[in-house]
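From the shared-data thread, chain only:
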Amino acid sequence: MADRIEIQYPWKGSLVGGVLFSLLVFLFLPRGNATIAWILSALVMIASIGKKWRKLEISRDAIVYWRQFGRPRRVKFADLSAIQKTKVNRWNSGHNVFPGIELQFPNSDYLLIPLDLPNSDVAYDKIFQAWEGQRASS
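Structure, as tokens:
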């Protein structure tokens, strides 16, 4: 495995959808509601552009999940007790259930990472191999 693998989440389709939604809001809302149209369009565009920042970084000893908003979540493989496939709900998508991965900690806490990627099985395999490699070396 390479020292670090970076997997970018798809975002261009969401941006196109955001632009189309904004155009429809401006076309079909009455002229007196321009403020509402601007606010709705701005929120949709911010959410759409925010998806560009989502990515996974997998290294030999850790995984970093860059979320749409907020700080990245970094987890060392040595701190995990188990990894398994699961289904993850996403709050801001039309299709709410995606394949995902559950990172389990020894204290029964866990972190869910959505793998709403075209190659989610490949991403899971790379994460699992890195975790197995870390466990074998320690």
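Residues 51 and 68 are 5 Å apart (CA to CA).
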